[in-house]
From TrEMBL:
CDD domains: CBS_pair_HRP1_like. Residues 1-57, 65-124 form the CBS domain. It comes from the Bacteria. SMART domains: CBS. This is Hypoxic response protein 1. Keywords: CBS domain. InterPro entries: CBS_dom (IPR000644), CBS_dom_sf (IPR046342), Diverse_CBS-Domain (IPR051257).
Length: 135
C-alpha cells in the first residue's frame, strides 16, 4: 500500500482535490471530515461528471465526492482486499485504522504480493465488468 496519503476535507474546493491528483499523478483522493475521519473519496471521474460536465466547477468536495466509502484495515490480507475490490468494482481501496486514513491500496499493489495470479486477474475482470462478482 501507499502510505502518507494526501487527503481533502469535505469543505475543500474541488480545485484542491484536482491539484493533489495532478501533483501525485493519481485519480483518487480520500475525503475526510474535520476530525480527519474518512467519509468518502473523490475521483477524477467525480470531478468531470458531477462538476465540469454540469458547468459548475466552483463546488466543495462534499457536493461531488463518492460517499459510502469501502475500506480495509491494515491487518487485512491480500485475498480479502482483492475480494472487496471485485465485489465493489473498485481499483483503489483506502486503508483505515482507528478511523484514520493510513494508506491506499491499489490493484497494482496486489499484483506485487504473493497471491495467485488468477485471483488478481479475476479481481480485475470483476472490477471491469458491471454486475460481475469474484467467485
Amino acid at each position: 500500500m501507499t502510505k502518507d496519503v494526501s487527503y481533502v476535507t469535505t469543505g475543500s474546493n474541488i480545485a484542491n482535490a484536482a491539484d493533489i491528483m495532478k501533483s501525485l499523478d493519481v485519480g483518487i483522493v480520500p475525503v475526510c471530515d474535520n476530525n480527519q475521519t474518512p467519509v468518502g473519496v473523490i475521483t477524477d471521474r467525480d470531478i468531470v461528471l458531477r462538476s465540469v460536465a454540469g458547468n459548475n466547477t466552483n463546488q466543495n468536495v462534499e457536493n461531488v465526492m463518492s460517499g459510502n466509502m469501502v475500506s480495509v484495515s491494515p491487518d487485512a490480507d491480500a485475498h480479502e482486499a482483492a475480494s472487496l475490490m471485485a465485489q465493489n468494482q473498485i481499483r483503489r481501496l483506502p486503508v483505515v485504522e482507528n478511523n484514520k486514513i493510513v494508506g491506499m491500496l491499489s490493484l497494482g499493489d496486489l499484483a506485487n504480493v504473493n497471491i495467485h495470479v488468477d485471483e488478481a486477474g479475476q479481481a480485475l475482470s470483476s472490477i471491469s465488468k458491471p454486475g460481475n462478482e469474484m467467485k
